[in-house]
Amino acid sequence: MTNLNRRSKKQVIAAVTVAALSVGALAGCSNSGADDADASEDTSANKTVDWWTWNPDQAVVGDWVDLFNKEHPDITINYRYIAFDDYANALRLAITTPSGPDVFGLNYGPMADQFGSAAIDLAPLAEENIGADWQDQLLGEDQLRVDDKQVALPWMVTGGGTLWYNQTVFDEAGATYPTNLDEWKKTCEKIEAIDKTCFTQGAKSSDFNRDIYVAIMNQISPGIVWDAAAGEVPFDSPEFIEGFEAWKSLFDEGIIEDGAFGLAQYPDAYDEFNRGEAGMIALGTWNNSNMTKAARDGNVETYGDVANDQVFTSGAFPTVVDSPMATDILRVGPDIAWAISEESDAKEAAWTFIDWLTTSDAAQDKIGSTLQTPALVSAEIDRSDLVDPELQNPALDSQATAMADESGSGSFPNADIENALYQALASTATEGLSAEDAAKSVQAAIDAS
């Protein structure tokens, strides 16, 4: 991964024209024969795009649609928001039917693997309309290939494995941000003394348990999780057992509260944090927009005047193992990417929308204005709207350094392995499963894949 503030890949912005998009190229992305001909007729005529995603949410999606329609007033966007915890199931039920989306969001890793077969190959369209060097222009595009098929194009790139904290809560409690487990316990004592939750975790949302475990494993040996998932290292080796023990210690020491598995990260834990009722939460760099004045104003509308007083920033995950090899290592990749359904009857309009989202100045500069890392190499991150630049600029600098390090990045090759990890983490925390047996259960899933 390049230094994402300096954007050191080719500094090229594609001049994309809808007129250059050939119906023939779109037809070539469909299944075959007569179906292709029908699709080409439909996609050239239909100007309504059904868009399914968990991000952007309802609070800001209108801004995105309005911005797109300034350039493409002839295309109608029908937006459907689905909470992330419900998204995969909703997509599974509809993606192969005409009632499903035209454009849909994907994560890299198992989600792209699971739903990639329902998406058209975007590589020919990208080469024709963005340029022969389109891969050089987009960060993380290589993580969205499934069986040599470009199933989606990235919108933004994020890093998982950070903690977020509310400086307002910390100031009220007289607490400092912890760097290790002992300090974390002392911080929690101070925050809990003012009747607030120290660390809120929606453990019902398995992805966020995974992010904590991967952060722990990257302290033990950066990237070893992905080596094991690829069959290069046994998952039941001592390093992974140590990782499960460290995960369990967060419950034993009271860092993660009883009842966490009854909460979803979104909206339960997220709302608690944003209301100033919790000091810390495990989120990635996708939460950077909450450092801005614009996001604070939006939070006032959602949570009331209490949101005016909250100041959010991020920190490295505290060290929770005895002899860490590394700290502040993130899992980096496309947070969300856009795909076109094979079943879409509006493929031409859908491509125009995806092309705009991923390569236009307007869309990618808007990503940068929210402090996210745009997928388009030439787009910049705009820090001008920070609530507390003195506090938040160093955090963003640390993020950029961590995101430039690829050692902790990767994904599971299939959902079965990831689901085995989810179950092992839950059972270790709540059912008394030993760390050894937890590691063996994930290895069994790897062996069966």
Automatic annotation (TrEMBL):
UniProt signal peptide: 1-27
Xref: InterPro entries: Bact_solute-bd_prot1, SBP
PROSITE patterns named among the record's database cross-references: PROKAR_LIPOPROTEIN (PS51257)
Species of origin: Paraoerskovia marina
The name this protein goes by in its record: Raffinose/stachyose/melibiose transport system substrate-binding protein
Keywords: Signal
Pfam families: SBP_bac_1
Domain of life: Bacteria
Gene3D superfamilies (alphabetical): Periplasmic binding protein-like II
SUPFAM superfamilies xrefs: Periplasmic binding protein-like II
